[in-house]
Design brief:
CATH superfamily of the largest domain: Medium-chain alcohol dehydrogenases, catalytic domain
CATH architecture of the largest domain: Alpha-Beta Complex
Radius of gyration: 21 Å
GO molecular function: oxidoreductase activity, acting on the CH-CH group of donors, NAD or NADP as acceptor
Organism: Pseudonocardia hierapolitana
Shape: globular
InterPro entries: ADH-like_C (IPR013149), ADH_N_2 (IPR041694), ER (IPR020843), GroES-like_sf (IPR011032), MDR_fam (IPR045010), NAD(P)-bd_dom_sf (IPR036291)
Number of helices: 10
Pfam family, one: ADH_zinc_N
Distance between the termini: 45 Å
CATH topology of the largest domain: Quinone Oxidoreductase, Chain A, domain 1
Number of strands: 16
Protein name: Enoyl reductase (ER) domain-containing protein
Structural class: alpha/beta
C-alpha cells in the first residue's frame, strides 16, 4: 500500500510584479513520505504565521537579507507544531515547539531548530507567533525610545507596527500616535491597544492631524510603510528626531512608495537621524524580546494583536494575499485544520 506524505506549499514560479498576488505562484502539493533521522523530530504543525516579508522572498531577488524561496521547493516561515515522532531525547512526543520550517502539514526538524513553548506563560502557543523581535529591536536598540518621547508609528495596525507602538508605550513614551488605514483600524489602535491617538491615512489629512497631535514635533518615527507617510513624518520632525526605518510596505504592494522624497534641507536643518535597519533574529535579539514580552504581557502592558483564521494550508495561501492587501490587522495566524486553539477572529 502506498503511504501518502504530508502536504506543503511550494513555489511554482517567481513573482515578477508587485501587483501579482502571491497565491498565483504558490501551490499546495503532496510531498513524499520522510522518516526522521537520529536526533530529528517529526512535528505536526498547528499554527502558521503569515508575514509580509514572505511576499518579497517569492521574487528571484530580494533586498531582504535572507535567501529567497526556490522554485519547485516548499516555502518556509514561523510555525507552531506538536512533536508526533521523536528521535531526540530532549524533545519527547507531545512537546509543542516553535520553528521556522512551516508552510507544510508536517516538518522534519534538526536539533536546534525546534524550541519548546513554555507552559502557562501565554493563553495559547500561537502567542509566540508575533513580530515582536523586529519591533523591539527597532524601538529599543535603533530608536532608543524612552520617557518623554513623542512616537509616531506607521502601519500601526499591522504585525510589526502594532507591537512597536505598544513597546513604545511600555517604555514610557509621553505620547504614541499610530497611522492606519480606515476608521475601524484607527479606533482599534486607541480603544484596544492603548495608543494615545490614531490617524486614518485614508480619511484624514496627515499634516493637519500631526500638527494637532504633535504641535512640538515627533521625536521618533517607526516606519513600516514609507511613501507619503515618511514624507509627512519628516515635515513634522522635532530637532534631533530619530527615524527607525523598518519596512516599505507602500512599495511592496505596488507604486513608488519604497522611494519617498527625502527633503534634505529639512533633515539637515533639524538634524534628523535616519536609521534604517534589518533584523537578523539573532539569539540575542530573540532573547531580549522574549524576556520583556512575557513580563509586559503578564503586567497587562502589551496585547497580542492578531487576526486568527481557521483552515488548511490553502487558507494560509489566500491569507498571504489578504495581508498584502491590508485586509487584516495585527499578526496574521492560521490555525491549521485539526489543531486545538481559540475561535477565529481579531484580538
Amino acid at each position: 500500500m502506498t503511504v501518502q506524505g504530508p502536504s506543503a506549499v511550494v513555489l511554482r514560479a517567481h513573482r515578477t510584479d508587485l501587483a501579482q498576488p502571491p497565491s498565483s505562484v504558490l501551490e499546495v502539493v503532496t510531498l513524499p513520505p520522510q522518516e526522521p533521522a537520529a536526533g530529528q523530530v517529526r512535528v505536526r504543525n498547528l499554527f502558521q504565521q503569515v508575514i509580509a516579508a514572505s511576499g518579497d522572498l517569492m521574487f528571484a531577488t530580494s533586498q531582504i537579507p535572507v535567501p529567497v524561496f526556490r522554485v519547485g521547493e516548499p516555502i518556509h516561515g514561523p510555525a507552531i507544531g506538536r512533536v508526533v515522532e521523536s528521535r531526540a531525547d530532549d524533545l519527547p512526543v507531545g512537546t509543542v515547539v516553535l520553528h521556522t520550517s512551516g508552510w507544510r502539514e508536517e516538518s522534519i526538524l534538526e536539533p536546534g531548530e525546534a524550541f519548546p513553548v513554555p507552559d502557562g506563560v501565554f493563553p495559547g502557543p500561537e502567542y509566540l507567533l508575533n513580530q515582536g523581535v523586529p519591533a523591539y529591536h527597532g524601538i529599543v536598540d535603533i530608536a532608543g525610545v524612552g520617557e518623554g518621547d513623542v512616537v509616531l508609528v506607521s502601519g500601526a495596525a499591522g504585525g510589526v507596527g502594532s507591537m512597536a507602538a505598544q513597546i513604545a508605550n511600555a517604555r514610557g513614551a509621553a505620547s504614541v500616535i499610530g497611522i492606519a488605514g480606515g476608521p475601524e483600524k484607527a479606533r482599534y489602535l486607541v480603544d484596544e491597544l492603548g495608543l494615545d491617538a490614531a490617524i486614518d491615512h485614508r480619511g484624514d489629512d496627515l499634516d493637519e492631524r500631526l500638527t494637532e497631535l504633535a504641535p512640538d514635533g515627533i521625536t521618533v518615527f517607526f516606519d513600516t510603510i514609507g511613501g507619503a507617510q515618511f514624507e509627512a513624518a519628516l515635515r513634522h520632525a522635532a530637532p534631533g528626531a530619530r527615524f527607525a526605518l523598518c519596512g516599505t510596505l507602500a512599495g511592496q504592494i505596488g507604486g513608488d512608495g519604497g522611494h519617498p522624497r527625502l527633503d534634505l534641507m529639512t533633515a539637515i536643518a533639524r538634524e534628523v537621524q535616519i536609521r534604517p535597519f534589518s533584523t537578523r533574529h539573532t539569539p540575542e535579539q530573540i532573547e531580549a524580546w522574549s524576556s520583556h514580552y512575557a513580563q509586559w504581557y503578564a503586567d497587562g502592558r502589551i496585547r497580542f494583536a492578531r487576526t486568527l483564521l481557521d483552515g488548511t494550508l490553502q487558507r494560509a495561501v489566500t491569507a498571504q494575499d489578504e495581508l498584502l492587501a491590508g485586509v487584516h490587522r495585527g499578526n496574521v495566524v492560521v490555525r491549521l485544520a485539526g489543531s486545538a486553539g481559540h475561535t477565529s477572529g481579531h484580538e
